[in-house]
Amino acid sequence: MKKTLYQILEVDPNASAEEIEAAYRRLTAMRDTQWPDANMPGLVRQAHEILSDPKRRRGYDASLAAPAVTAYAMRDASPAFVETWGKWIVAIALLAGVTWWSTSHREPPAPPAAPTSPVAAKASADAVDPAAAGAQTRTTTAEPASDASTSSSVQGTQAAPPAVTAAPPVVAAAVTPPTPSVASMPIQKSAETLFADVAPSVARVNVMDASGRMVGSGSGVVIDDGVLLTSCHVATVGAKLTAKLGESVLPATVALADEVYDLCRLNVPSMRAPPVPLGSVDTLRTGQRVYAIGAPQGLELTLSEGIVSALRKVDGGTVIQTTAPISPGSSGGGLFDASGRLVGIMTFQHRYGQNLNFALPADWIPQMRARRATEPGWRASAVADQSQIGSPLALLVGRWLCRDWTTGRTGHYSFETDGRVSIAMSDTRDAATLRYGVSGRTLQISDAKQAVSMAIEELTARKLILRGRERSIACERE
Question: Higher confidence at residue 348 or residue 346?
Answer without folding.
Answer: 346
